[in-house]
Amino acid sequence: MTGTLYGVGVGPGDPDLITLKALKILRTTPVVAYLAADAAESLARAIAAPHLPGGQAEVVIRVPMRTDPTPGQAVYDRAAEELAAHLEAGRDVAVLCEGDPLLYGSFQYLLNRLAGRAEVRVVPGVTSLTAASAAALAPLASRNDALAVLPAPLDAGVLRDRLRAADAAVIVKLGRHLPKVRAVLDELGLLHRAVYVERVSMDGQRILPLAQVDGPAPYFSMILVPR
Description:
single chain, alpha/beta, Cobalt-precorrin-4 Transmethylase, domain 1, Methyltransferase, Cobalt-precorrin-4 Transmethylase, Domain 2, 2 domains, five-stranded parallel beta sheet, five-stranded mixed beta sheet, 10 strands
């Protein structure tokens, strides 16, 4: 029998936000794998570290952070084969994923390659969207409200149209796109409603009105536009 592949959501940053189901898998699975950007430390590994018992085999999947997705696809090809070798030997593998494995998560690329070759189970995790809403005490939507989750790299015109069509929104992947997003929100008269959240549940967490934010935004930041 082959091992089981687990996509394990470890939450947005605070190790205490890991679910009980994820905790059980982290403590019993013989192989853990996780993504890391180039030579950087893996955030998913750092979040899970307090709960790992030690003695597990670890597979580091180093993905180049490039606009061109081609090099990354080759990395996932190689990683899938390395994980498949463990699975075919009967060893369960837990792939650690920031937030939730299937919400803007890279686990989907391994899922696409390994589904059908082993049993796959996904353990959902607390998302940065819901963690930010909780930290900011900002209810995002209720009743029949339509909530839009929008990546900041979208063209300004696309962002404008989708914000107009939504009752509330979360804008993720800010980084260098913050000035563009801020300008669109200002144009739509939404700047006064927008809340900026940075490094939610991690050291250095910041929450303040978007109108007060100056300077560049880190990767781990987002804008909430509540109802």
